[in-house]
Amino acid sequence: MKDLNNKVAVVTGAGSGIGRALALALAERGCRLAVSDVNKEGLAETVKALKGSEVKSYYLDVSDRDAIYAHAEAVNKDFGQVNLVINNAGVALSATVREMTDDDFKWVMDIDFWGVAHGTRAFLPHLIASGDGHVVNISSVFGLIGVPKQSAYNAAKFAVRGFTESLRQEMQLENQPVSVSCVHPGGIRTNIANAARMGKSENADAQRKGFDKLAMTTPEKAAQIIVKGILKDESRILVGPDAWGIEAINRLLGSAYQPLVARFSRKNLYV
Per the record, GO CC terms (predicted)? Predict the structure, then answer.
């Protein structure tokens, strides 16, 4: 996909953060947009910001499999085709393995993994039919390394990475007209930390302030990097200098990265 002009792009979680920034960046390149979110107010603000572009908004809870499949059919019917799907919607949880509840664990997995998996599978036939398709799944740097108190989030984001990298190879081996990219953002200045669920013993204010200090990249910059990665057909899109650093540490040290993360976590996460 060398040109985004007049392509139909689907963006989930478009009511704020990276999702909204992506919708705006894609509109600038001439995309026709199908944007969705569970937050109706945030979604309406995104649509307002996209004034002048061809856009249609949809209420969508990505934890609902049937809703995702219905959404794929609706978008294809409304626009006549689908070229680009960005499975971006996500949530966060800070809690230890011992402390997190089954409900919280399921909440993260249903949105951060199954929302991506179902979003990919529901739209894949339409992307193939378009003759020029691209799947973009948002993982995280936590899909590259394990971090204390992030076991559920790690599980979802590692799963997204494996699922996406496998799909890319399948599309190539089957000579399908669909490319696939996995995105690994570092700290992005979004509202995900403020909306995160916390374990009972967590100091929520301290955790959120800590995240804010580590957020090195704006959503707008993240969107620019992702769009460039799509146009270059990159299999792995790293977003932010921290993402590049973590990827390098993981590649160079292998599992020996863990003592470094433990040292950092003892100082910054166990507060």
Answer: membrane
Catalytic residue among 69, 153, 257, 270: 153
Half-sphere exposure of 151 (CA within 13 A, CB side): 14
Q: Could you give the domains of the chain? A: 8-268 (3.40.50.720)
Torsion sign across C-alpha atoms 249, 182, 243, 208: negative
Q: What distance in Å separates the CA atoms of residue 10 and residue 76, rounded to the nearest whole number? A: 10
Q: Do 209 and 194 touch, CB atoms closer than 8 A?
A: no
Compute the radius of gyration of the chain from its Cα atoms: 18
CB atoms within 10 A of CB 183: 29
Instruction: Return the closest-CA partner of residue 31 out of 72, 69, 81, 77.
Output: 81
- 188 band by pLDDT with thresholds 50, 70 and 90: confident
The Cα diameter of the chain in Å comes to 53
Does residue 270 carry a catalytic annotation?
no
pTM for this structure?
A: 0.91
> Which residue from 24, 12, 27, 163 is spatially nearest to 88, judged by alpha carbons?
12
SS3 168: helix
Residue pair 56/31 in contact (Cβ under 8 Å)? The answer is: no
Does residue 46 surpass a pLDDT of 70? yes
